[in-house]
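Per reviewer request, we include the raw input and output of the structure prediction for the construct analysed in the revised manuscript.
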Amino acid sequence: MNFGQAIQNGFQNYANLKGSATRREYWLWMLFVALVSFVCGVVAIIGFGLAPLIWDVIIVTPSFAFLNRRLRDAGLSTKLSFVPLTGFVVAVVYSVVGSAIAAQALVGSYGGGIASLRHAVSTLYAVTGCTIFIVLVCLGLKIYWTTRPSKSLPGASQGKTTSSPGSFTINMGA
């Protein structure tokens, strides 16, 4: 599968949660998403700030479907595809709640001044650190799961020789 075929497959099967996707196919798709995201970021800096948001809305369903198919090909449960989404939601909620606590500390309960500013800044540092940690853990899990070898053929990833009674031997590895 080449780069163009992976992109075409991603958009043709944008809502297909059945079947499987090879490692190569999945990572070519992710390369395409990253390249277009970079271009959208440049376009946003130049002046059209909605480009990344529009791209994210367009790409969320095909990427989720691709992740499901890749997890299935790796022999993992497709329920794992919700872990990165859950991590993102937790990070957003944690950021909003932490920012609200920092804002309250800045104007409210500490009476203003340097003490409230220190508390607000330390709260924001803690929230930012925890948010980054959650996102990195979810990203690490996603990368680990999607780089696992395919499980579609018995012994395919181990290079083993498989045979069945009364038939010839097939060498699955190189």
